[in-house]
Specification:
Strand content: 15-25%
Number of strands: 9
Largest sheet: 9 strands, mixed
Structural class: alpha/beta
Helix content: 25-40%
Number of helices: 12
Shape: globular
Radius of gyration: 18 Å
């Protein structure tokens, strides 16, 4: 839609059948992109709904659109990365609503202070998203209420520091230096669908020397959390085995054991940060987590 141009920061959004929320997501980002000289790159990953038509209706100098056949989230993010040129890239999802007027500036300023991997907080909408943002805010769960997405806030509390662990990263509301991401080869395209392609990239970024930080003041709201997780469980576990076999690392093994319910969050914290084990023993319960529907109807989740 638009030719690439030099920008201060690129926001990459993979979009698959994203018409329900993408307009509002872009509306929130637009003034921030204009304010800091940023660009938003949306990769339409073979959507079969009205995503392409929605994007065609809103050309803008800050927006670049990439269309590709359906190839999955990892390849879509890599396609967005290839179209950008900014020193800093932020990855966001198409159902993640920016909830701070300084969201993009916060990521950019943090990267200028100290390049690293910065994870903003993600609150989870409790019920179906309302058109009224204030109503949404009254129906949210804190990030710490999600045992996968919430590791960032939990580890930050235990560490008493913004510096946390690579296991706290998700592929949404996270920024990093483009040069390092490109040097390590971007997202592994073996992963398709939901997870853990973001954690595998985060592990390699950590191995390349980038520290991971929580970023207060860069909050977002997940409009469709945990939807279709009952469809995703077997595929996630398949890729967890791939992740473990690819790296053969005690830290990766610890994460896999946590997600499969065999290791406590406190033990995971100790293994991946080198800090003392916090008191208590909180275990992730995969059977319960992946059965959650939050009262929604299922829909096509092919990616």
């Amino acid at each position: 839609m638009n030719d690439p141009r030099t920008s201060a920061i690129d926001v990459v959004i993979p979009a698959y059948n994203a018409a329900a929320h993408l307009d509002r997501v872009l509306d929130r980002i637009a003034p921030q992109a204009l304010a800091v000289g940023g660009r938003v790159i949306v990769v339409d990953d073979g959507s079969t709904d009205q995503t392409a038509a929605l994007l065609a209706r809103r050309p803008a100098p800050w927006l670049t659109v990439v269309h590709q056949e359906n190839q999955g989230r990892a390849r879509a993010r890599n396609a967005g990365l290839e179209r950008g040129d900014a020193a800093v890239v932020v990855f966001l999802d198409s159902d993640i609503l920016v909830d701070s007027e300084a969201w993009l500036a916060a990521h950019l300023e943090a990267q200028r202070r100290q390049p690293g991997v910065y994870m903003g907080m993600i609150r989870q909408a409790r019920g179906a998203a309302s058109a009224d943002d204030r109503a949404e805010g009254a129906k949210t769960l804190d990030q710490s209420d999600d045992d996968l997405v919430g590791l960032c806030s939990t580890f930050r509390r235990w560490a008493q520091s913004d510096r946390v662990s690579w296991v706290c990263v998700t592929g949404a509301n996270v920024s990093m230096p483009r040069q390092v991401v490109e040097q390590i080869g971007g997202f592994d395209p073996t992963f398709r669908g939901w997870g853990p392609e973001d954690l595998e990239l985060s592990y390699r970024l950590n191995a390349a020397g980038l520290a991971t930080f929580c970023l207060p003041g860069a909050d977002c709201l997940h409009l469709a959390p945990r939807q279709e997780l009952h469809y995703q469980r077997d595929r996630l576990f398949k890729y967890l085995r791939y992740f473990d076999g690819k790296h053969r690392s005690p830290e990766v093994r610890a994460y896999v054991r946590y997600v499969t319910g065999a290791l406590s969050a406190q033990e995971l914290f100790a293994v991946t940060t080198g800090k003392p084990t916090p008191p208590g023993a909180d275990y992730f319960r995969p059977a319960e987590y992946f059965a959650r529907r939050e009262g929604r109807e299922g829909r096509d989740v092919t990616e």
